[in-house]
Each structure stands twice: as C-alpha cells, then as structure tokens.
Specification:
The protein is an alpha+beta fold. The protein is 47% helix and 21% strand.
Amino acid sequence: MECIETKKKLLSICRKMQDETIQHLKLEMDDAQKSANEYGTPKDRYDSYRIQLLRKKDMFGQQLAKTMEQLDTLDRISLKRRFEEVEFGALVITDKQKILVSIGLGKIELDGSTYFAISPSVPVFNAMIGKKVGEEYEFRGAPIKILSIC
C-alpha cells in the first residue's frame, strides 16, 4: 500500500509541474501576442519584427500543446493496477535508483528520497522493459537489480 501512496504523490507532483509549465507558457503566449499587437501592422513588407513576435507566440503554442499532451499521458496512469513487470505507468525501485515510467520530467524529491520521472522512449527504459522483480538488466555497463515494481 505504501508503494501506491508514493506513486500517487509522485503523479501529483508531476501534474503540478505540468500545470505550472502550462500557466507559464500561456503567459508567454499572451505576452508575445500583446507585443505584436502593440507594435501594430508591419511598416513595410520587409518588416520582420512583428512576424518574429508572432512566430514566438506560435512556438509557445506548440510547447503548450506538447505539455498538455504530456498531462493527458499522466492521466492514463492507473493507481489501481498492479504491475508484474516494467512497463509504462510502473514505479520501479532498483538497487541504484527509483524510477517512475511516465513522462520525462527528470529528478523529483519526495519524502527525503530521489525519484526520476522518465519517458518510455529513453534508453534506460528500453534496457529494463519487461523485466520482473529480482531480475537484472545492464545499463551503461553496470548491472542493475529490480527490487520492486508497483
């Protein structure tokens, strides 16, 4: 049960991080649009400053869409399902580190422990996918043993 609570807390932290990123990106988009509006229409057909501001807004829009997609990915992780092997949504405890297979957010501190939120597309996940408790996998030449999965 403790493992499920830890996973729940980690997912909550991940969602909070994504929500903060979404708010930041929305502010940046609004700021870029406001700057473009204040600048007015292009002064001539070679005036690229306004176009640059609008491209900046579009770039933030693309990042916002990706962040919202990642938030949806987090919502697909079930807290009720028990994992028998390493796969998307699993919290994997090894003899070297603690890994939440979700989206790539990196290092997360929780209750005095360090966890890593990783994407299923990273090499370390490819090394451990399908492994079960007690099995080992090799990553960067080092053997790593899986202690628990939930």
